[in-house]
User: Fold this.
Amino acid sequence: MSPKPKTLDVTIMGRTYKVACSEEEREALISAVAYFEKKKTEIKNAGRVASAERIAVMAALNIANELLSSRNTAGGFDIEGLRRRMAAMEATLDQALAP
Assistant:
């Protein structure tokens, strides 16, 4: 029987969330939160994005792009196709979140 997951309080964009994770996952989760916060701060400091929701989405897209770029091997992953889809999503977000 595996140990019951414990909860960990993490703060993301000023809000505290309770996240279930095992003791073995704890450090990785803390690192993921810190990395997200770093990316969010970079986007916020660049000053091109105003709303918290848009900053969060852009940080998540940037992190996903980094992950998928790092996985781009001889396996034939279409990174350019992903970049085109991300640009289309960003344009859609711009329209949806425009004042």
